[in-house]
């Protein structure tokens, strides 16, 4: 007999049956300038929650798989974990299923197809197919797919002793529609200290809502990821782990972290840094504190340690009408110090932390410092120099399409090797505020790609190389620029479906829309973008040379026309 396949929308009823709450923030109206609508970017948070239902008596194989997929979505945030989802499985399948081995984030609900079975059959096969837009590995690392791909998973079913169908074999992992992903998993920023113990470096992970603090602590104890291993440090003694597999929140709001004996080897100052690291990661601004335990005994932490979160220090500087201006109070103001621009043709601009120095690329061939007592100072010469970026150590990053260079505060020029760029042409670079990460836009055989790599420095904080990178914003086409917009978010100038736009892309995923990159409307044919890390400030220059300011409501107001360049510090 020829098998007949029936197609069902596996989770079509889940969304309609759920209680959905929509929360939208009020718009903040600009006080000056023409307003350009960017309303499509207004973020509407959908908190979807529902109570999963166990298998019904007499359910068909496809209904069993459909019910299992629906119930498994509730697992990461349910107080009963996967108890209901496991009712759809045989005992052997329950013990063999590794739910977090891989999580596939799907564009839509998976489509379920079941092969016909006779009424007296004892085995059945069901397939679930979906379009994968992102993946989550066993360590909570989120990766957005450059191109959506189709995946099919197979379920084998058998009858139990009561003749009811149950799933007897299934592949490890979860299938989660993007619309449900941020309700099931909690975006968590693991913070690791810079080698000079001055700043925090974030590493975004996603953990099940019910266990995110425990999972985050385990990953902190495991140390930074490979790409940040030589750009951060740790003072946690080797071999330290969780004494029990639970980080709990007490009645007084204190987060209790029970650790194994090696933590006792840490000095008082090191314990203080561990507490600060865990509080930065686990507290999330709700006023809680962390108490360390060695087993069941609380550890004394006599002092507090404060490290800075990545943030932009200083105002934006613009080049317009042949002069420099500061962006203050939502308008351009006259520059407040001498700028040696005579005879120069600025084609790119960068500003140091705190607003000084200002450097420009002159006619694409010379990097020149144009502020300061001895300005102008020629820092670097080359062909088609990259738009510069500054770091907190006084370095100015630039180079050309094939070589990255840094001009140190002493004006010494150093090369920054990055073997992974050997077959690629660099178009844009941006140093993060804490100086530990570099965003790079480069062209290769597959087109433009955005990567973020760790910056490796020596003991004098001189850059000596880049780590192997992680890719960001894969679905965004034709990217020409990437700048830091938040501690782990980039603003990109690129296109989607041939339409140029400004995009946001998370280094490890965004907090909304399934973690996926998203376009910001309101800027027509953007030329460039610059942003403030630590607030919502963002400026863009459109195709007509109009400087636009993004408001918190996702509206853009006109600041000035005929603006050539603009940059926040960094």
Quick structural overview:
The chain is mainly beta and 570 residues long. It is built from 7 helices and 41 strands.
List keywords for this structure.
single chain, 570 residues, mainly beta, Nuclear Transport Factor 2, Chain: A, Neuraminidase, 5-stranded antiparallel β-sheet, 7 helices, Lipoprotein LpqB, beta-propeller domain protein, LpqB_N, lipoprotein, signal, LpqB_C
Just give the CATH class of the largest domain.
Mainly Beta
Tell me how many strands there are. 41
Largest sheet: 7 strands, mixed
Q: In total, how many domains does the architecture comprise? A: 3
Query: What's the CATH superfamily of the largest domain, by name?
Result: TolB, C-terminal domain
Low-confidence stretches: 1-33, 35-48
Identify the overall geometry.
globular
CATH fold-level name of the largest domain: Neuraminidase
Mean pLDDT: 91
Between the first and last Cα atoms, what is the distance in angstroms? 68 Å
Put simply, the count of helices is: 7
Organism: Isoptericola variabilis (strain 225)
Domain GerMN: 213-303
Signal peptide: 1-21
Pfam family, one: Gmad1
Question: Could you please describe the fold and organization of this structure?
Answer:
The protein is mostly beta strands and 570 residues long. The chain folds into 3 domains: 52-185, Nuclear Transport Factor 2, Chain: A, CATH 3.10.450; 191-298, no CATH class; 316-567, Neuraminidase (6 Propeller), CATH 2.120.10. The chain is 11% helix and 41% strand. The protein contains 7 helices and 41 strands. Strands 1, 5, 6, 7, 8, 9 and 10 form a 7-stranded mixed sheet that branches. A 5-stranded antiparallel sheet has the order 3-40-39-38-37, with no helix packed on it. Helix 6 crosses helix 7 (268-282). It is globular and about 90 Å long.
